[in-house]
Amino acid sequence: MFEQITLPYSVDALEPNIDALTIETHYGKHHKTYTATFNAKVEEAGLTGKTAEEILSNLDSIADPALRTAIKNNGGGYYNHNLYFELFSATPAAAPTGELAAKIDATFGSLDALKEKLTAAATGRFGSGWAWLVAKPDKSLEVVSTANQDNPYSEHMGTPLIALDVWEHAYYLKYKNLRGDYIKAFFNVLDWAKVSAKYDAI
Description:
The chain is mainly alpha-helical. The protein has 2 domains: 20-86, Fe,Mn superoxide dismutase (SOD) domain (Helix Hairpins); 98-200, Iron/manganese superoxide dismutase, C-terminal domain (minor pseudopilin epsh fold, 3-Layer(bab) Sandwich). The chain has helices spanning 20-44, 52-57, 65-86, 98-108, 111-123, 172-175, 179-189, 192-200; strands at residues 129-135, 141-147, 159-165. It has a 3-stranded antiparallel beta sheet with strand order 2-1-3. Helix 5 packs antiparallel against helix 7 (179-189).
C-alpha cells in the first residue's frame, strides 16, 4: 500500500515562504486524496506489489483506457507530491555539493542559471503542472515541464530530482496569482543536500 511521506518538518516550519494553511490543505487534503485513489486503482488493475516508479513507467500495460488514465493522474499526484514535500527543509542547504554541483556547473553554467531555467519552465507552464530537474540514465541533467499530474516516469523523461509544483493549490492561499513570488519562495526552502543525495543514488 502506498503511503504519503511523513513530513520531516512541522506544518508551520516553512513560514513565511510556504504557509501552514497551504501545507495543511495541500498535504492533508490534495495529496491524501491522490494517495487513496491511487491505491484503489492499483488494486483494481491488479498491480499491487509494484513500485510507483514501475507502474508509472509502464502505463501502456494497462489495457483499460479509463483505468490507465486514473492511475496516471493519481499515481502522478501521489509520487509528485511525495517528492515535492520531501525536498523541503526549515534549514535547507543553500547549494548542491559533490558530483551534482559539478554537473550543474558543467550543464547550465551555474546554480543561478539552473534556477533561472527551472523558473522559466514553471512560469511558462500554462495552467496546472510541474517543472522538473531530471537525470538521464547517463546522469546528464535536463529541465523539463509536465502538465497536470504527469510525471517524468510516465513521460519517459528520466529520474526526477526536483519537483516544482505550479498547480494553484500549491500557492494560491498565500500568493494569489503571483506564481513568480511563490517560485522564489520555493527555492528558499529547497534542501539541496537532499537533491544531491538523490543524484548520488542514481
